[in-house]
Amino acid sequence: MSNRDHSIRLEPSVLEDRRRFYDWLVHPELVPFLLGPPLFPDADIPTWEEFSADYLDYFFTGSNPELGRCYRILMDEVCIGQINYASGLPSHLVAELDIWMSSPEFCGHGYGVEAIQILSGILLNDLGKEELVIRPSARNPRAVRAYEKAGFRRIEIDREAAAVSYGNGDYYDDVVLVLRKNP
Fold first, then answer.
1. Residue 158's domain is classified under what CATH number?
2. Residues 21-45 pLDDT 10s
3. Which of 107, 118, 173, 180 has a 20 to 30 A CA-CA distance from 4?
4. Each residue of 69-87: b (16+ CB within 10 Å) or e?
5. In the chain, how many domains are there?
6. Domain span at residue 67?
7. What span, in angstroms and rounded, lies between the C-alpha atoms of 65 and 89?
8. d(Cα 33, Cα 134) in Å, to the nearest integer?
């Protein structure tokens, strides 16, 4: 499966997507790559209530785009994942991205890379962001490589400085990658 054979685009999510996105995040085939033991004992699998508290209505309604938004990742009009940004960071000019696919079958083909590039363009060119950050675990080297392919670059920053600049991360071994409007 090559991206040249498929059309990838983003579509704003709606409230009805919240449960579907949660189900994908906690799907037994994807969890080993993202959350929980044995590889991620420091990143608990969220309950529905915890997920809903993190992903408030505005992520799905677009009512507060300065704070964040979720998008469906569509491949040939089929929803294959979700990507989002949050801007509740110390600076309103910085947004943090997060992405997960609906199934392992959509991983490793470049669809996520393309979705990240599309959302990065929206944030940097249309929404006035100056810097984007994404923080996977070092235990997820495929994700790190994908973000680098999307144009993000690793920065050397200690955990405390990263927390001041970007808020707390999800993992004890966050790899901080950034994409700046003006490098």
1. 3.40.630.30
2. 999 988 777 766 677 677 767 777 8
3. 180
4. bbbbbbbeeebbbbbbbbb
5. 1
6. 3-180
7. 14
8. 16
